Amino acid sequence: MLIKRNACIPSSEITDRKVWEQRRDFLRIAALAGVSLAGCAPTESEGGSREPVVHGAPIKGIVKSRYRVEQKPTDYADITTYNNFYEFGIGKSKPARNSRDFVTRPWNIQIEGECEAPGELGMEDILAGFTQEERIYRFRCVEAWSMVIPWVGFPLGDLLKRFKPTSKARYVAFETLYDPKRMPGQKRRVLDWPYREALRMDEAMHPLTLLATGLYGEALPNQNGAPLRLVVPWKYGFKSIKSIVTIRFTEKAPPCTWNQMAPEEYGFYANVNPEVDHPRWSQRYERYIGEGLFGGKHRTLPFNGYAEEVASLYSGMDLTLYI
Ligand SMILES: Nc1nc2c(c(=O)[nH]1)N[C@H]1C(S)=C(S)[C@@H](COP(=O)(O)O)O[C@H]1N2
Ligand SMILES: [Mo]
Known about the structure:
This protein has 323 residues and is α+β, with helices and mostly antiparallel strands. It has one domain: Sulfite Oxidase, Chain A, domain 2 (Alpha-Beta Complex). Helices cover 17% and strands 22% of the residues. The protein has helices at 11-14, 17-33, 76-79, 94-98, 123-127, 156-162, 201-205, 257-261, 307-310; strands at residues 63-68, 108-113, 119-122, 133-140, 145-155, 171-176, 196-200, 210-215, 218-219, 229-231, 244-250, 285-288, 298-299. Residues 38, 83-87, 141, 176, 195, 224-225, 237-238, 240-243 line the site of the ligand Nc1nc2c(c(=O)[nH]1)N[C@H]1C(S)=C(S)[C@@H](COP(=O)(O)O)O[C@H]1N2.
């Protein structure tokens, strides 16, 4: 089955001339670099030339949450050397290498849009009052591989409530830092920087939606999105935007980087769905990172295994159209 359109955002809203030009540029660069759209490089196996494992500072006072899958977590070395983070290069091993000197303190986050309490907050203000939880989540990339990651973080919804979103706030948008001096991958226009993502308000408020500050009990490594990144476990990995500097409440569906670039491949919702193929590969099976190339295929679960918790958010929607 080939799904061509994301019916959620009217194409008139996003496919203006500028976007089409950017998309054309991007496709040209991608063709030159020999990469496909999501940086899908299926031949690049995990466990190749690896950086020495660098650990973050231990996080104090972590509480174990009831949200944990049974599967054994993926090795720390795989989680921190097999990454997608185009700001630090295309290719799974690049982010670990190129983000080593990225400084994430001080770090300020701008809160904007449809809320009563906008403003700028430092990381310390963001964290104040939150108990950090460890949650072991399945993580599924659109490139048909997955990991099991012991995240540390707190529910996004608990933070959003502090800013008192107005009744007009139907979506929440996020932006990654834009600073080509610190994020060398931004010197090339492989994406329309800054990286942007968004959720519908009810998705953002769902208790499974996490803002992660760490993994394996330690501060988040730069390559995994330090100091603060989104984790939405029932959606493909590209929704989980890294190194966030802006949170904006909006009335209309905000543009999202991959959706703008290739709407027929990357929908706004991006719910993990084994029934809907990516136009260039199947989503029916996934490869577990850490099992090696001969590890075999595993069946992909609807909503990445979180259907019981989240399927009701989409009742009445045709999820072959709203991809
Ligand atoms: N800012 C930013 N966020 C991003 C990306 C990116 O390139 N830039 N890649 C996304 C994709 S495609 C995936 S699969 C996950 C990868 O997260 P991980 O490297 O921590 O496993 O980050 C997502 N968040
Ligand atoms: Mo991804």
